[in-house]
Amino acid sequence: MKRIAVLTSGGDAPGMNAAIRAVVRTGLGYGWEVCGVRHGYAGLIAGEMDPLSARDVGGVLQRGGTVLGSARSPEFETLEGREKALRSLNEHEVEALVVIGGNGSQTGACRLSEMGFPVVGVASTIDNDLVGSDITIGVDTALNIALEAIDRLKTTASSHHRAFLVEVMGRRCGYLALMAAIAGGAEAVALPEVETDPEALATELHAAYLRGKPHALVVVAEGATYNAEGLAAYFRDHKDRLGFDLRVTTLGHVQRGGAPGAFDRILATRLGGGATEALRRGESGVLVGDIQGEIRTTPLAEVVGKQKSLDPWLIKLAGVLAK
Ligand code: F6P
């Protein structure tokens, strides 16, 4: 191997920079050249890539986002787009590609690998929905950001005897919502994986009011049957039905920004280092993830088109603890 390339794709996640740094510096350590591709698959198609030195990735460990830039590229989803990307890799004499990203990005990586190009994926998404890694880069930081907001909202909710609907990210996967609800001591949680019954939720909140709770906090995943605004609209006459007056806070992209915590920096460094090690062993067409505390590879074909499921015991536990 003489030259590899690395890109970040899809939603940025805190820790991506630590993964880029690890790929670059371990690759250089093996005597390879490592190119950084700008703006994900869109930049790959456009041939936006340059060799990176160890210095180029200095001071990035503590920065949020991705210094390479990211994108969601509809063109890469077409065969024509992927053929352009392959031509661009060949023109730049790149022999293997590391793709740091989540579900959509790893689907792209799998397609490229099926076309005969060596690709290794690194599990990175705040959604934590990827099969092939127990935990993905960015989740821990995003969760801590959500928790800080929840703690703050509880204070003001208690002062005013209010209920809050707090919407967190997660279009298809409720991991972030469930963990934020458990760690934040929420009164209820709405997940994409479980059909939300607004009547049952109203009864729960009213029961919490009658039990004398000074506040009620519902963590709502953006992809739940009703998002936070949808639920609030459903509870239009909320004060009469819930007991509590109701407010809505949508955290949105706040959860993706900011400096990565220690856990994500270390996880990203291990996975980035694991990616070049896999290539060095001659492995490709795989996702590098953390499985039971160890860096393991899983064939991309077994990763794409699937979604890691939530632990049903934890869903049940969240309900019991909310009482
Ligand atoms: O996949 C990560 C994620 O943050 C999801 O939780 C969210 O639904 C989506 O990206 C938002 O995408 P965008 O940044 O393109 O609006």
Structure write-up:
- Strands 3-2-1-4-5-10-11 form a seven-stranded mixed beta sheet, with helices on both faces. A four-stranded parallel beta sheet has the order 7-8-6-9, with helices on both faces.
- Strand 1, helix 1 and strand 2 (33-37) form a beta-alpha-beta unit.
- The protein has 323 residues and is of the alpha/beta class.
- It contains twelve helices and eleven strands.
- The protein has helices at residues 16-29, 40-46, 79-91, 103-114, 139-160, 175-184, 198-210, 228-234, 238-242, 262-280, 300-303, 312-321; strands spanning 3-8, 33-37, 49-51, 96-101, 119-123, 162-168, 188-190, 216-221, 245-250, 286-291, 294-299.
- 42% of the residues lie in helices and 18% in strands.
- The structure holds 6-O-phosphono-beta-D-fructofuranose.
- Residues 11, 72, 102, 125-127, 169-171, 222, 256 line the site of 6-O-phosphono-beta-D-fructofuranose (F6P).
- 6-O-phosphono-beta-D-fructofuranose is lined by residues 11, 72, 102, 125-127, 169-171, 222, 256.
Features of the shown structure:
seven-stranded mixed beta sheet; 323 residues; binds 6-O-phosphono-beta-D-fructofuranose; elongated; four-stranded parallel beta sheet; 18% strand; 42% helix; alpha/beta
Give the spatial strand order of the biggest sheet.
3-2-1-4-5-10-11
SSE ordering? EHEHEHEHEHEHEHEHHEHEEHH
Distance between the termini: 58 Å
Structural class: alpha/beta
Largest pleated sheet: 7 strands, mixed
